[in-house]
Amino acid sequence: MNNPEHSRRFGLVGILPAGVIAMMVAFEYTASAPFAWAASVLAIATVAILTPKVRASRKAFVLIGIALVIWSALSLSDWGQATAIAAQRGAMVMALFTALTAIRNAAMTSPQIIECGRFLARQRPGLRYSALTIGGHLFGLILLYGSISLLGTLATESTAREPDRRVRVQRTRRMMIAIQRGFASTLCWSPLGFSLIVTISVVPGASWAAAAVPGIVTALMMLVIGWGLDALYKPQRLAPVNAAPATDTGRWSVQLRPLLILLAVVLLGVAVLHWVTGVEVIGAVMSLVPVVAALWVALQTPPEGASRAAHVGQRAVQFVTRELPSYRGEIVLLFMAGFIGSLGAFLLVPLVQGLGLDLQGIPAWIIVAAMVWIIPLTGQLGMNPILAVSLLVPVLPTPETMGIPPTALVVAITGGWALSGATSPFTASVLLAAALGKVSPQRAGIGWNGVYALVAGSAITLWALVLLIAL
């Protein structure tokens, strides 16, 4: 039986990741080390409290992290500094997740945003894939994998009235694939995503300003390839015309306006903060996004008898004491992925050097091309992309040493990250798509998107190599 008093005390753990955001924002704007230390301490305390409440697979990551600390203490003279840097990396990931969860929480209760998703899901069959893949991209910029949950739920609602099971299954599959691919393409360029922020932090000389436009080109390539493959493989006719579900013929500019306004405020706000203050993109995201989330809640109609200010306060309390603790598995996993990747890299670099492996002897184009494929391959083995990138990239020669532009390496890494997001049966995006599509994660991942990953991966590889030569 649940103890209400214990539940209330456990809910207070949400204060800790909220504190991590405050400390990390202060550090990003001041570069004062005590703020980074405070954020690390709060993040470690959060993980320590949440670990007993998570699944065994999450606890395994914690045990691996502890083992790495012991290993580093026995083998590195500067193990304390290495551990502190790893804890700071984990705190950064936790703070970013908390900030993005805040805006996702605000958007998911907005009637305008929900109606926008319903409009996309109700497009006529010939336009539905395009609508949902574009919608998956736009929603993914704000909601991350929450876009799959929202749009996927609305999509399955729209097909539930179809009496023919074969038609219903086929339509659901195509709609979920469109949403998956739309979301995955955001990982190539979005300043709000873990992919670009983590990659920029581990690739020396990289910046979001330099990588944004090439990343957008990558995203467009993925969207077009996904659309082309759907057009190539879709059945000519799924059902008689009179059996088609109701469609929405409203004006796109009107129906999508709330989402586009929210996107414009967030993306332009992050860009302006980044360029005006000089703070890194992650600092701009962590400081701006919670403010936008609070304003978005304030614009929503409060419950009867409550003022807007009281409504915002109540939602903030619920977010800290209920929403954040409910994401305990994700919080522990993401912190430990950043921590293990960072500390593991400290241990791996001297190990590689001790084995006499000279990665500088490998042609730069091979390293760049390999990064597109290594990340989705490790994703099939259950390795989180944050862990894979944080662990592998520091082992590589720096772009300056290889004589290549950092942007080419960033495009390769984020492209591989996007492919992993569409195919790995261990990622949240694929797990959500599998649950909504009522298939196994392996089917929703490599089964639905295997050919897509091969074609898109080949195109991304060529694009990264073009950037390597042209920049």
Can you walk through the features of this model?
This protein has helices spanning 4-11, 15-30, 33-50, 56-75, 79-107, 111-121, 125-143, 146-159, 165-186, 194-202, 208-233, 252-255, 257-277, 281-299, 308-326, 328-354, 364-380, 385-392, 399-402, 406-423, 428-437, 441-470. The chain is mainly alpha-helical. The chain contains 22 helices and no strands. The protein has one domain (4-236, 254-470). It comes from Paracoccus nototheniae.
Quick tags:
471 residues, mainly alpha, 22 helices, 78% helix, membrane, transmembrane helix
Judged by helices, strands and strand pairing, the structural class is mainly alpha
Stretches where pLDDT is under 50 for at least 5 consecutive residues are 238-245
Mean pLDDT: 90
Number of β-strand runs: 0
**Biggest sheet, in brief?**
none
- The coarse silhouette is globular
What's the total helix number? 22
Percent of sequence in beta strands: under 5%
SSE ordering = HHHHHHHHHHHHHHHHHHHHHH
Give the proportion of residues in helices: over 70%
C-alpha Rg, in Å? 22 Å
How far from one another are the termini?
62 Å
Total individual domains? 1
Transmembrane segments: 12-29, 35-51, 60-77, 134-156, 177-202, 208-229, 259-276, 282-299, 331-352, 364-396, 408-434, 446-470
Keywords: Membrane, Transmembrane, Transmembrane helix
Protein name: H+/citrate symporter
Short structural summary:
By secondary structure, the chain is mainly alpha-helical.
List the helices and strands and how they pair.
Elements: H1 4-11, H2 15-30, H3 33-50, H4 56-75, H5 79-107, H6 111-121, H7 125-143, H8 146-159, H9 165-186, H10 194-202, H11 208-233, H12 252-255, H13 257-277, H14 281-299, H15 308-326, H16 328-354, H17 364-380, H18 385-392, H19 399-402, H20 406-423, H21 428-437, H22 441-470
